[in-house]
Design goal:
Shape: globular
Structural class: mainly beta
Number of strands: 67
Radius of gyration: 29 Å
Strand order of the largest sheet: 33-37-36-35-34
Number of helices: 4
Length: about 850
């Protein structure tokens, strides 16, 4: 009774594994009409007998038979459709996130039944679980419902990932029967059971991409009976990654697993069929391939595709018997003979067993020993959109639904595979060395590209992406200080008083000291840690406050395990001695400067990322000369899971935005933590309700005012600054108009800052907004953004001459464009209104 056709299974698995998309953006896009070849506003799409279903947002939509229009089968206002399952009789199971019921739709009979969701399993806090998967049982009379949660069980225990399975009768009357409850991280759910990671400890967190794994287990379902089976046991080995492989189905499972034993890293493929025995197959490459870049075919072949620095692809195919073949696919060239720089996106299998590849803006067909052929599909992208990394292949009629990110929402576009394959053509690889980086000239009369000019001790230095040139007067030619073709300047610091520069290039494990006036250029290796197994990278490079040392900050992990280890060294620039370690701190680095550094200490029972971190304490290290002092500046009394650095600074003062959860209830509160390095005074206060919760939309002014950009329901922004009495003042900015329904309106804040003469600049979407004592004004930047490029969020303000240098990301790297602010002032138009008085 379940969905058992290959195309149906593959389609439903595809949207289950697709990258996430915001429900708000889906809902907004869903109001735009869809067609038979374009679904607007959906997190996913699935093939069902006789048509398609859409997933995401408040609506469950259907495209049936020969219909030209999608119709709404059911809608739950203000909620998000999260999971849908279909059977071959046309019935659907659907679950919205917030509802207390899930739904059974029988399209043949025209019936609709709401069924209560299973309860939280015994022993866990109510309301901490949600439906993660649901399936029709073999006889179609019951549903197998998997729920999962991450309940917080107190400071001593911390948070756990917990999975439970219920059998739920589809009569809407019989109470659900609990099949099992198990702590573990889900690798796969199926009507035949669940496969879970069991960590050795929850102290450092656990996910598919990183965990100290004790075992991988299967919980097999047979009616009411549950059989527990161990698929892999770590023993005295370190098993760190278990990444499911695309192409698995209700019966078959496969995952890449990394193992470290006897000081060596190895990787294998764990294969398993429900009801069978597990197999572990060692793979030749030790590095895990990305989920979209690997595939388990119907014949049991494991296919993985890796892209090299020259953008060529290496396809490795490993049979179930362990036989391995490897093929290299070179990139093509454009009309100017330049090598294609686009990234490989994904691989999939067609109904006849051949493969399709999504590579850059092309679909590539790989069939046996034939030469691959490509066809350009960039026409389906609109301005400001990008590939979503989400695909649904349909066998009959053969096509590929390709996800397109549309700002906060997502569309799906249908591609006719047979028609595209007829148009596909083979290509000629680039000639050897045709696109090798050009050597930098030692002397140049003119420098190209976006550059930054420094005046150091009567010498002018021009800094590009990859190089530095200098000259003593405008009549002289530029002379190369140093550069690495194809490698960017990664960290740089200047000492204006002494006319010196510290700089480090990517892919180098050294830093450079330049003094252009004297022609000095010295190289210094990175300091070496005495911590065994620490793999650290450069995070900060500064001149010390006395100018005699380089302050070098390094950060990394031991054998890839949390927590981060942060070290800072003083390196004598006169080479009078070896580097001396200033401090070593465990935790997530949030800020580094010559005067100190800030770190978040995560809860020992939790993991920690830049976006979410359960916080035990926030610590700073004050640096005074050759002495470093660590101190705690904040220990949250409430559950705190977010810390964001507020951009800007005020007389060396810094600010952090924190988010807290009350012991009961769901309403979070925000706090603002302000401090200075070397000053024991710390100011912490709660922010009023409705404050901006993303630190990227806040700013600390030079005068110490806290500025925030609060999103408005209609898409606008409210820029708020407090007055002395606490009343808000600022600017109200309406959303910019956007008419093209197949391109994305960019409403992101890409940068903001304070101007030298007063007022603020705001890079919002495709506009530069100027804020001062008068009405706000907007200047369009759209002409500066090339097609298939996006704003990088790397804007730099320069006071003399006053301009804004804006980063633009392309497939081949990052460019910079310059905006003269005097010109922007003249051409800007009024946009929005000032409120309050300064």
């Amino acid at each position: 009774m379940r969905c058992v056709t290959w195309s149906c299974l593959l389609a439903l698995l595809a949207w289950l594994a697709a990258p996430s998309v915001h429900a708000e953006g889906v809902e907004e896009r869903a109001t735009v009409p869809s067609s038979t070849i374009r679904l607007r506003g959906a997190a996913g799409i699935g093939a069902i007998p006789g048509g398609y279903i859409s997933v995401g947002g408040s609506r469950l939509q259907l495209l049936e038979g020969n219909s030209k229009r999608w119709r709404t089968l059911h809608q739950v206002q203000g909620d998000n459709l999260y999971r849908v399952e279909a059977d071959d009789d046309g019935r659907l199971l659907a679950s919205w996130e917030q509802e207390r019921v899930f739904h059974l739709f029988d399209r043949a009979r025209g019936t609709h039944l709401a069924i209560p969701k299973p309860p939280t399993p015994p022993g866990y806090p109510p309301g901490t679980f949600g439906i993660e998967a649901l399936y029709f049982d073999d006889d179609g009379r019951d549903a197998i419902v998997f729920i999962d949660g991450h309940p917080y069980l107190g400071a001593a225990i911390g948070q756990r990932a917990v999975v439970a399975a219920y059998r739920v009768a589809l009569d809407g009357e019989t109470a659900p029967r609990l099949l099992f409850v198990e702590e573990g991280v889900e690798l796969q759910f199926s009507p035949r059971g669940a496969i879970l990671i069991k960590p050795r400890s929850w102290r450092l967190g656990c996910s598919q991409g990183g965990c100290d794994i004790e075992a991988i287990i299967a919980l097999e379902l047979d009616g009411e009976r549950v059989t527990r089976r161990t698929l892999l046991e770590a023993g005295d080995r370190h098993v760190g990654v278990a990444l499911p492989v695309k192409g698995r189905d209700d019966v078959r499972f496969a995952a890449q697993v990394t193992v470290r034993a006897d000081g060596k890293n190895t990787r294998g493929l764990l294969r398993f069929r429900f009801g069978g025995r597990p197999e572990f197959q060692r793979l030749s490459e030790s590095d895990t391939s990305h989920y979209p870049h690997s595939l388990l075919t119907r014949s049991g072949e494991f296919v993985e595709v890796r892209q090299g620095e020259d953008r060529s692809l290496t396809m490795t195919r490993t049979t179930a018997a362990g036989e391995e073949t490897r093929t290299t696919i070179p990139p093509w060239t454009d009309a100017r003979g330049r090598r294609e720089k686009g990234w490989f996106e994904s691989v999939g299998e067609r109904a006849d067993g051949s493969l399709w590849l999504h590579w850059a803006d092309h679909l590539v067909f790989v069939r046996g020993n034939e030469h691959p052929r490509k066809v350009d599909i960039r026409h389906v992208l609109g301005r400001g959109t990008e590939w979503a990394g989400a695909y649904v292949y349909v066998a009959r009629p053969e096509g590929l639904w390709v996800g397109i990110e549309m700002g906060g929402g997502r569309d799906y576009r249908f591609l006719d595979m047979a028609g595209l394959e007829k148009r596909a053509v083979p290509w000629t690889p680039p000639a050897p060395g045709s696109d090798a980086p050009q050597q930098l000239p030692l002397v140049a009369t003119k420098l190209s590209g976006q550059r930054r000019t420094l005046l150091l001790d009567s010498v002018t230095v021009s800094v590009g992406d990859t190089d530095m040139y200098s000259r003593s007067s405008g009549k002289e030619a530029w002379r190369l200080l140093y550069g690495v073709p194809g490698r960017s300047i990664y960290r740089m610091a200047t000492d204006d008083d002494a006319g010196r520069i510290l700089a480090s290039w990517s892919a180098e494990k050294e830093f450079h000291l330049f003094q252009p006036a004297t022609g000095t250029h010295e190289r210094f290796p990175w300091p070496v840690s005495d911590m065994k197994g620490l793999n650290a990278g450069l995070q900060g490079l500064f001149f010390s406050t006395d100018g005699r040392h380089a302050l070098v900050s390094l950060s990394g992990r031991v054998m890839g395990r949390s927590p981060d280890i942060n070290e800072a060294y003083l390196v004598p620039l006169d080479r009078s001695g070896p580097p001396r370690r200033l401090f070593r701190v465990e935790g997530q680095r949030w800020h580094t400067s010559p005067r100190g550094a800030t770190f978040v200490k995560p809860n020992p029972n939790q993991g920690c990322t830049a976006r979410q971190c359960v916080v035990d304490a926030i610590v700073v290290v004050d640096i005074a000369g050759s002495r470093a002092t660590e101190r705690v500046i904040h220990e949250p009394k409430l559950h705190t899971d977010y810390v964001g650095l507020v951009p800007g600074s005020s007389a060396d003062g810094l600010a952090l935005l924190t988010r807290h959860w009350p012991p009961k209830g769901m309403n979070t509160s925000l706090g603002l933590l302000r401090f200075r390095y070397g000053d024991t005074a710390v100011d912490y206060r709660l922010l009023p309700p409705g404050s901006e919760s993303d630190a990227g939309r806040t700013f600390l002014t030079r005068s110490g005012e806290y500025m925030e950009l609060v999103a408005q329901p209609e898409g606008g922004l409210s820029a708020r600054l407090p007055r002395g009495n606490g009343a808000p003042t600022g600017w109200d900015l309406p959303a910019f108009p956007h008419a093209d329904r197949d391109s994305a309106a960019d409403s992101a804040v890409h940068g903001m800052g304070q101007r030298q003469g007063g007022g603020f600049w705001l890079h919002w979407g495709d506009h530069l907004v100027l804020l001062d004592d008068g009405a706000p004004r907007a200047y369009s930047l759209a002409r500066l953004l090339p097609r298939k490029a996006e704003w990088a969020g790397a804007d730099r303000y320069e006071a003399t001459p006053e301009r804004l240098v804006i980063g633009v990301d392309r497939a081949g790297g990052r460019d910079f464009v310059s905006v003269d602010l005097a010109t922007a002032e003249k051409q800007a138009r009024a946009w929005g209104a000032r409120h309050g008085a300064r």
